[in-house]
Amino acid sequence: MTKAKGEHHYTVTVNWTGNTGTGTSSYAAYSRNHVIQAEGKPDVPGSSDPAFRGDPARWNPEDMLVASLSACHKLWYLHFCAVEGITVEAYRDEAQGIMAEDPARGGAFTRVTLRPEVTIRAGDDAALAAELHDRAHHFCFIANSVNFPVRCEPRIVFAR
């Protein structure tokens, strides 16, 4: 396959491991478990949300969507901080996504809120550090690909 300039391809395999012996003979007859795989990377155990008969110990697609938004934002943010001379010493995001069920089409996310707490070097420009979240959001590949609002409520603290 020929790639256009600037085009990136991602190949993953989702392997359903939930056949408990009778396949999908009924809604309750099968497990929602699967394994997400990509060459050269560790497997990710997946399932559905526990509300939909999934295993709560495994990642579900909704968790992974919120995690993807958070991780993409963080990667862009760290990039812009490095370029602008802001030294980030710690970054932790307590992101939350909200999905609403819809009988007509299953459901959809209505919003995701990122809540990164960023620790920067004492003496760095806290106002610039806060502004860089807007730039990171503007460039985030994943946020640019979804059809619901992604909000960011950052908190900037200085290292001791």
From TrEMBL:
SUPFAM superfamilies: OsmC-like. InterPro entries: KH_dom-like_a/b, OsmC/Ohr_fam, OsmC/Ohrsf, OsmC_Ohr_Peroxiredoxin. It comes from the Bacteria. This is Organic hydroperoxide reductase OsmC/OhrA. It comes from Achromobacter marplatensis.
